[in-house]
Amino acid sequence: MIAKMRTYNGCRRDCQRSGLEIDCFWDCSVWETRGQVLGFFPVGANPSRTAINAETGDVWVANRDSANITKLDINGNHLKTCFTGAGPRGVAIEENGDVWVGNCGAGTVIKLSGDDSDCTSLATVHTGGCPYGLAIDSSNNIWVANTDLNSIQKINTKTLAITSYPAPHIYGITVDPYDNVWAGDGMGGTGSGFYKLPAGAAPGSSPLHFNVGRNIVGLTTDIYGHIWGGSYYGNSLVGVNQSGALLLDIPSLGVDAHGAVGDSYGQVWVVNNQSGDTRVIDALSLNSVGFFCASDINNDSICNDSNTYTYSDMTGLNRAMLLRSGNWTSNIIDGGYPDQHWGRIEWQEIIPSSKQIIEVLVRADNDSAILTNKSWITASDWNALPLEQRRGQYLQIKVKMRTRERDISPVLWGLQINCD
Q: Residue 222: which residues within 8 A CB-CB, separation 6 or more?
């Protein structure tokens, strides 16, 4: 069973599937509040990691005791469950939506299709040891916290080559907005803290180590580039800046603090395993925001009906800050009469490098209700169609942009639709 919890006050977020495309939108007819539990959803046995694709709202859950992974949509509807291997733990979603899973009991990291039905294994990497935590960087590499081998491992997703870096007592792992890799030193005691492997570090080099006197297990980055970790020995949430200087060390207000995660509103959440609750702080002011129950399955106001446990990218923020993307969808355009002929779709653009992408999509139909469920086609395919096939009273356009470089964005302007 997994719980879905709202991270801030606002309109409900929803997504609609149209063929291979997924359109997400805000539904302001439903208002949700920070800390509100929106539902509990069955998955496999002993779910222990979650990863979110913020572009689509889809959720991947690794189930360690049933040796599989479950994919849900944004509303908790089951899409598929796939066998992974023994003891799946870490989960990371790559740029195209395919998912990587670390099998702690098998010493492997596998790749599965990101679609809604195919469970074919697309790749298997033999890491050895226990690939315990996974994260992705802006170049689509998968980073592994391998607890048995006391190492950080990088998997090149194109060649499947492994590069290793020593990291004794490693636990959780994340990649910050600058492509630095951070990991937790989970041993505990006065020498424990955070590892930082700077972007572009030489193969085999030792990461920096910042001592905070706490064992750091699940960890995350926030929108400001600070790093946060849960510490179950100290039942605390610990934050450091890019230089490793301590920002905050506060009680988690629960028992057995494990996972920590940032959200898009600049907040950080720490999940308490044995007490089933979570504390939230503002990552900029460092003030407390709230304390919420995450496990009241019986709706009896008892916050220990089940334990709460997760690492990985459980809000989707880490991936979203590295593989930055945005969609714009036009209102439905009424051509005035059935079978309106539409001409070419044209625009101007600047794409600074191969790390930026612009894609323009279009769809048309005589029925506006059917249009919203119709598959999109690329504007280049649309422009290549004979005029007789480019028609429909209603037309809609979507622009998708992506960049893998911080503060560098593609630019589009002058979008127009010609009418014939």
A: 228, 262, 266, 267, 268, 283, 317
